[in-house]
Design brief:
mainly alpha; elongated; 0% strand
């Protein structure tokens, strides 16, 4: 399993746990249920969403840099092509 898959799985687990805590807080009728919903459910869901978005941004770029891969080189010019940029001729 790749790093991206592990992070997305962790994010999904956190969001699902947030939904479970949300369901429990709806069944419980007490003022503390609101705080459970606000801190527990919303916190878990927000952490899952943040990990998901961060994994999409960072894992793709970090893998090539960690492996020491160089950026792709520019394609070679076709045989017989002049070296350097094309000459600019002034207009009359």
């Amino acid at each position: 399993m790749t790093t991206l898959e592990r992070r997305i799985r962790l994010a999904a687990i956190l969001v699902i746990l947030g939904l479970v805590v949300e369901g429990v807080s709806f069944l419980w009728s007490s003022p503390l249920a609101f705080f459970l919903f606000l801190i527990g459910a919303c916190g878990l869901a927000a952490a899952g969403i943040a990990i998901y978005l961060a994994s999409l941004i960072t894992v793709g770029h970090g893998a090539a840099a960690a492996a020491g891969a160089a950026p792709p080189a520019a394609p070679a010019p076709p045989p017989g092509a002049p070296e350097g940029p094309p000459a600019v001729t002034p207009r009359p």
